[in-house]
Amino acid sequence: MFDLAGKVALVTGGNGGIGLGMARGLAQAGAHVVIAGRNRAKSAAALRQLRDAGQQASEIAADVTDEAQVAALFAQVRDAHGRLDILVNNAGTTVRRPPQDMTLDEWNLVMDTNLTSAFLCCRAAYPLMKAAGAGKIVNIGSILSIFGAPYAGPYCASKGGIVQYTRSIALAWAKDNIQANTVLPGWIDTELTESARAEVAGLNDRVLARTPAARWGRPEDLAGIAVFLASRASDFVTGTAIPVDGGYAIA
After folding, report:
1. Domain 8-190+219-243 belongs in CATH node 3.40.50.720
2. What residues contact residue 79 under an 8 Å CB cut-off, 6+ apart?
3. N or C: fewer beta carbons within 10 Å in the chain?
4. Residue ranges of the domains in the chain?
């Protein structure tokens, strides 16, 4: 039920953090994982990790905020593998600044990276998945789609948008046997949150105090949900948003 042998998975931002944690899980379940990222050196290092573990993987350099590069990315996946079964839209960024001080360029950077890129990739994935008769889309949101943050307006807005966009494509593409779901990571120990702990006073203590699991999450904590949502086990699950947060949202 969780076997992904013979499947091809594309993970944007798959060269580090949550994306690499999910990529490892998908590869361990048997999928060939294609890592898409802008940083070739970082992608090459991630690729070595996967291949050294005996897993099937490749990487393609792409800026998924650029429409032409997205089209080229999916064409390369199609030409190399003849199919695309799983898409994980994980590419993301943030700018930490009070809303009154946020510039339009900063707003657009976060929205384009976190939300518009998912639209471009989902649109490009659709014909490949429709032709295959099935598909799985996993969009990465955040628990900040549930909660607010005074220093992360565009991030919160983009992640809330991901949840609603996922529901829209789940409805539109159900007839094509394509399931789309959102994962809402909690406070996960990554490069992005490392900088948050440095910039936001008291954040580490507040996260630990509120999280019933009493720790920050790790990228590998996202591997299981990625495999579930990418596999036959979730064939009747679509349009939902699933927190993976150690209980933070219920505390």
Report:
1. yes
2. none
3. N
4. 8-190+219-243
Cα(181)–Cα(3) distance, integer angstroms: 19
How many other C-beta atoms are found inside a 10 Å radius of the C-beta of residue 250? Answer: 8
- Tokens 């440095």 locate to 198
What are 233's two structure tokens? 């086990």
Q: Which amino acid is at 141?
A: G
Contacts of 16 (CB under 8 A, 6+ apart): 37, 42, 46, 190, 191
- Decide if 155 is catalytic: yes
**Active-site hit among 126, 155, 165, 248:** 155
Averaged over successive runs of 10 residues, the pLDDT of the chain (251 residues) comes to: 98 97 98 97 96 97 98 98 98 95 98 98 98 98 94 96 98 98 96 85 93 96 98 98 96 89
168-169-175 Cα angle (round to 5): 115
